[in-house]
Every structure is written in structure tokens, then in C-alpha cells.
Amino acid sequence: MKNLYLLVLLIFGNNTFSMIIDNLDDKRANWSAISDNVMGGISEVNFYEVEEGEEKFYRLEGTVSTANNGGFIQSVIRYPFNAEEFSGIKIKVRGTNDAYYVWIRTPSSRFPWDRYIASFSPGDEWSTVEIPFSAFKKSNFYMPKKMNISKIRTIAFAAYGKDFQAELDLAQIELY
User: Fold this and answer.
1) For the chain, what is the HEC assignment?
2) For 55-101, how does the pLDDT look when each residue is reduced to its tens digit (9 = 90+)?
3) 0.85 exceeded by the pTM?
């Protein structure tokens, strides 16, 4: 019995399990695409599903423009997540050689520009990126420094902050 307890503690204490958010198969998220057009910007966004051979994935692409105080495109998952049992977000990605962002909104994200932010740079080959929740930084001084991961409202993948042609492929999104 003691060995069973130690095994359970080892498995769950090291957080070796995950929760699939979207795998383009039996687990699907409710996605929407948004650009800075909502605030007068002129960036253009496309978000759609692609199939290349055996591989299915989503593609976030578009022209990011900082004109008119803009500068972002994003694909958003709107779903309440309690992520207390997890350490971060894991994504299978590839894309252009640019910085991309994961934006998380919680109840302390009162305004549309409030979020917790972490960046990553995909390569042109598929890779798995793990971003621990501790790597996310608040976007504004009045937000709590530590993100409340028990009340995640949205998770977004974004191209942001400079003029460029974005292309980001996402194949598997999960909490780890």
C-alpha cells in the first residue's frame, strides 16, 4: 500500500499529466480570430484549418500593421479554464522566424488591453514549445503580478508589435 501511495504521489506530484485543449481530432476548442480592426487598426487576419498529408493544424496568418495605432492579429480560445493542476501551456508549432505571443486573460484583465503575456519563436520545422505559467508577465501595472490560473477566461496566440507578414501553425494545444 505504501508503494502505491508513493507511485501516485510521484505521478501527480511531478505534474506528469496534461489536459488537451485542441488536437484537431476528438478535442476541439471554440476559436475566433481578431485583429486590431476592432480599435481602428488595419491589420488583416485569417485563421483556418489546414491538412498536409497526415498532419492537421490551424494556421494564423495575416499582415500585421502598426499604422493607425494598431499592430496585432490573434486567434482566441474562449473557455473557462481552471489550470491550478498544471504548470503551463504546451503547443506544437511552426512558423515564420518572428516572435509570437500567448496572451492569457483572467478576471483581473478588466480592459481589452489587459493580459498576461509570454513570447516564443517558432522555427520553420514543427517543434513543441512549453511555456510555464511563471513566465507570463502582466501587461499593466495595476494588474496582480501573479496570474490567477484558476480563472483563465481566454488563451490567445498573437502576432504583435511590428509590421510583418505573420504565419503561425498550431497543431496541438494543451495544459501540462
Assistant:
1) CHHHHHHHHHHHHCCCCCEEEECCCCCCCCEEEEEHHHHCCCCEEEEEEEEECCEEEEEEEEEECCHHHCCEEEEEEEEEECCCCCCEEEEEEEECCCCEEEEEECCCCCCCCCCEEEEECCCCCCEEEEEEHHHCEECCCCCCCCCCHHHEEEEEEEEECCCEEEEEEEEEEEEC
2) 999 999 999 999 998 899 999 999 899 999 999 999 999 999 999 99
3) yes
